[in-house]
Amino acid sequence: MDAYQPLLWDHLEKLCAFGPRNPGSAGHAQARAYIREIAGRTADTWQEQEFEVETSDRETVTLYNIELNFKGTRDQPPILLGAHYDTRPYADEEIDSVLKSQPIIGANDGGSGTAVLLGLAQYLHDHPPARPVRIVFFDGEDYGVRFSSDYFLGSTHYADQLAGQDKTLWPHAVLVVDMVGDKDLRILKEVNSTKSAPGLVDTLFQKAGELGMDQFFPKYGYAVRDDHIPFAAIGIPSVLLIDMEYPHWHKLADTLDKCSAESLFAVFTVVAQSLPEIN
Ligand SMILES: [Zn+2]
């Protein structure tokens, strides 16, 4: 497993070097190209899904989800692993009004989850899973102005499509990772996850305990709205791993130096080692 730790950090460094990765930016296009390149090298099949969303202020934005499929050795519905790869277009937690309007680098918020999933793509290529795994990089999670409905655009689009399909085609469960790179990582049991998929939450935290990953605290934390919510809402057991205690959240200071390879590796390892136990 240890061999994957430098790979995770390399992914995060590259993503941050693209600059802010909000929809429409040059960094977003570079991040998409990077994800597609890894997809082509690791997945059995992959596709990019382009779609348009009309925002609450009647602007049309073009977004792209990227899906990688690892077919597994068993004919079963897949586990869906998700993370958003877009970053926030404005640092609205800044006090200064000029700073507030600038896009963030999003090393932790947008970068860390993407880096962990890119590492898992390599891991699943090297270690084909029993149950199929689908990795989805969601766009437009962090697009909306505060109190608008323009959040979780990619995952909402994806879940809406599933809702129109036969349930036999649905994923078995959804596991989303977001903000998992903080140097001072503390992951608690997210409340919406424990409502939607208590068994899966227990599996993950039990595995973290067995592995001695002390970044996971098996106690109840906050309720967070993130990319798992649209899936939980249609009845798919859905879990979010997140550390919301991050002082640089939605600020320009959400940069690489606030993250660590150890934190990424802890989450990567717990997810990778839990997959065989998700039944
Ligand atoms: Zn965010």
Provide keyphrases for this structure.
279 residues, alpha/beta, Aminopeptidase, 6-stranded mixed β-sheet, two-stranded parallel ribbon, 9 helices, globular, binds zinc ion
Write the layout of secondary structure elements.
Blueprint: H1 4-17, H2 26-42, E1 45-54, E2 60-70, E3 79-84, H3 97-100, H4 107-126, E4 133-138, H5 153-163, E5 173-178, E6 187-189, H6 191-196, H7 198-211, E7 216-220, H8 229-233, E8 238-242, H9 261-274
Parallel strand pairs: 3-4, 3-5, 5-8, 6-7
Antiparallel strand pairs: 1-2, 2-4
The structure holds zinc ion.
Written account of the structure:
The two termini are 23 Å apart. The longest helix has 20 residues, at 107-126. The strands form two sheets. The chain has a six-stranded mixed beta sheet with strand order 1-2-4-3-5-8, with helices on both faces. With 279 residues, it is α/β, with parallel strands linked by helices. Helix 1 packs across helix 9 (261-274). The chain has nine helices and eight strands. The mean pLDDT is 96. The protein has one domain: Zn peptidases (Aminopeptidase, 3-Layer(aba) Sandwich), CATH 3.40.630.10. The structure holds zinc ion. Zinc ion is lined by residues 88, 109, 142, 250.
Short summary of the structure?
The chain has 279 residues and is an alpha/beta fold. It has 9 helices and 8 strands. 38% of the residues lie in helices and 19% in strands.
Structurally, the number of domains stands at 1
Distance between the termini: 23 Å
Order of helices and strands: HHEEEHHEHEEHHEHEH
| Percentage of residues in DSSP E strands | 15-25%
The CATH superfamily appears as Zn peptidases
The largest pleated sheet is described as:
6 strands, mixed
- Low-confidence residue ranges: none
CATH class (first level) name = Alpha Beta
Just name the CATH architecture. 3-Layer(aba) Sandwich
Query: What form results from the Cα inertia axes?
Result: globular
Computed Rg: 17 Å
> How many H/I helices?
9
Which small-molecule ligands are present, each listed once? Answer: zinc ion
Number of strands: 8
Portion in helices:
25-40%
The overall pLDDT, averaged over residues, is 96
CATH topology, by name, is Aminopeptidase
